Amino acid sequence: MGKRNIIRMTPFRLVSYIVIAVIAGLMSLNLIENPAFGFIALGVWGLFPIALEYLSLKSKWVHDLINGKETVLIKHGKIMEENLLQTRLTGEELLRELRSKNAFNLADVEFAVMEDTGDINVLMKSDKKPVSSYDLGKKVAPLAEPQTVILDGNILNESLFSLGFNTEWLGIQLETIGVSLDNVFIGQVDSSGDLYLDLFDDSVQVPQPKVKEMLYANFEKIQADLTTFALETKNEAAKAMYSEHAKNLSQLMKKLKPYLLR
Question: What is the pTM of this model?
Answer without folding.
Answer: 0.53
